[in-house]
Amino acid sequence: MRGKSVLLIIGGGIAAYKSLALIRRIKERGATVRAILTAAGAEFVTPLSVASLSGEKVFQDLFSLTDEAEMGHIQLSRSADLVVVAPATADLMAKLANGLANDLASTALLATDKPVLMAPAMNVRMWNHAATQRNLATLKQDGVLFVGPNDGDMACGEFGPGRMAEPLEIAGTIENFFASNGGALSGLKALVTAGPTQEPLDPVRFIANRSSGKQGYAIADALARAGAETTLVSGPVEIVAPSGVKLLKVTTAREMLAACESALPADVAVCTAAVADWRPEIAANNKIKKEKGAATPVLRLVENPDILATLAGHARRPGLLIGFAAETENVVEQAVAKRLRKGCDWIVANDVSPATGIMGGDRNTVHVVTASGVEDWPELDKREVGARLAAKIAVALKGAA
Ligand SMILES: Cc1cc2nc3c(=O)[nH]c(=O)nc-3n(C[C@H](O)[C@H](O)[C@H](O)COP(=O)(O)O)c2cc1C
Is the pLDDT at 130 greater than 60, yes or no? Predict the structure, then answer.
């Protein structure tokens, strides 16, 4: 973000206090911040705080003679590489969706020729209101980018969607925006699966595996950083989604397949998830009880859909389809066979024997099997594996890393 500039519009919501932290998060990433504070915004944070943190004059008034002489509102609206609205009030969203321009913030939003990123913040009923949802759809159609809102406790005491994304999340989204404009994978769509699946036996028990999701999340992060529009379909894991990535959370293999199909078409798909091969034939509606004297239940399994093979044979098959092979013996030979059996383009194989510490750990040693042979990569941090794989994908799809 070094050398980039952000025009931050601070609207009138409780979350305006978080925009002060956001200024710091943006600046520590090397970009400059100039701010417009709405009249309502100034009821929540002072122009002095904003000016002190940004190190720049704060703009508040459309009809200020001095501001207009120093920097006209049109010039101000175009002076930055990106316009960020945080908090984006219901009012600011409504104004931009309908082309209103009756103060400095809304005029700048209408006059700018730069991309706009909004971080909405409002009461859950305001957010869910048909009018706000209509405005959201219009703004998305007009190309406005969004981060959040998230679910959570709200200042008004209610719970639900409407809480502004945290400053770090917004800063991450801005970082990804700048990285992806000009990134090696910009303009491409990527799909990544990660984590285990859980296959229920009854409402409280399930069959799962030890996959942590770390490798898949690292790959999704690397692809997004390289500019790909990335969807991450994740089984149950305890990892925060990388910023700028669309997260679809699922539980079972069948849900994972449906989510993957909903994310097609994709230029590249990387299937790292450890999908359960089998599920219990019957998932009881109520907890299976241990009855005195009753026979021990027998667990009958049925096969789950094969996500990688389904994508390989799909009418909308991803242009480049990459599978992962987690093996505990004959790793490379099994991966070579798996590539042919599943009909995918590459297999990234790793040895997940307990002694390797790969499953759940932060490091990985992989072998990349393609039609032209096997590459043995050295032991790397999982993020580094993600970055290298993203670079290799860029070469395959665009001829450039
Ligand atoms: C205490 C208080 C908190 C508010 N919080 C929000 C909010 O979080 N989101 C929102 O859209 N409006 C909120 N409002 C209403 C806005 O301040 C009001 O719609 C205002 O006109 C927005 O102006 P602006 O969009 O120019 O900043 C709040 C109002 C008050 C009095």
Answer: yes
Whether 270 shows a pLDDT value over 60: the answer reads yes
Among candidate residues 229, 232, 260, 263, the one with its CA nearest the CA of residue 247: 232
Query: Which residues in 181-254 belong to E strands, given as ranges?
Result: 189-194, 199-202, 205-207, 229-234, 246-249
Atom of ligand 1 nearest to the CA of 10: 27
What gap in Å lies between CA 185 and CA 180, rounded to an integer?
7
Question: Distance, CA 40 to ligand 1 centroid (Å)?
Answer: 7
What 3-state DSSP class applies to 241? coil
> Residue 83 — φ and ψ, nearest 5°?
-105, 125
Helix axis angle for 90-98 and 130-141, nearest 10°, is: 50
Catalytic sites, residue numbers: 156
Q: Which residues are CB-neighbours of 390 under 8 A, at least 6 positions away?
A: 184, 185, 219, 222, 223, 225, 226, 228
pTM equals 0.59
| Closest residue to atom 5 of ligand 1, CA basis | 13
Do 247 and 204 touch, CB atoms closer than 8 A? no
Which pLDDT tens digit goes with each residue over 312-351? 999 999 999 999 998 888 899 999 999 999 999 999 999 8
Nearest CA, atom 28, ligand 1: 13
Instruction: List, in order of start, the domains of the chain with CATH numbers.
Output: 5-180 (3.40.50.1950), 189-398 (3.40.50.10300)
Question: Could you give phi then psi for residue 147, rounded to 5 degrees?
Answer: -130, 130
Pocket of ligand 1 (CB under 6 A): 11-15, 38, 40-41, 87, 89-92, 105, 121-122, 126
Tokens 């219990």 -> residue: 280
Q: What is the pLDDT of residue 361?
A: 84
Closest residue by Cα to atom 30, ligand 1, is 13
Q: How far is ligand 1, taken at its centre, from the CA of residue 88, in Å?
A: 9
CA–CA distance, 49 with 111 (Å, rounded to integer): 26
Non-local (6+) Cβ contacts of 52 within 8 A are none
Substitution candidate for ligand 1 out of 18, 89, 92, 100 with most atoms within 8 A of CB? 89
pLDDT cut 70: percent of the chain above it:
96
Q: Does residue 351 come out as left (phi exceeding 0), alpha (psi in the -120 to 50 range) or beta? A: beta
The best mutation among 18, 50, 91 to test binding of ligand 1, ranked by most ligand atoms within 8 Å of the C-beta, falls on 91
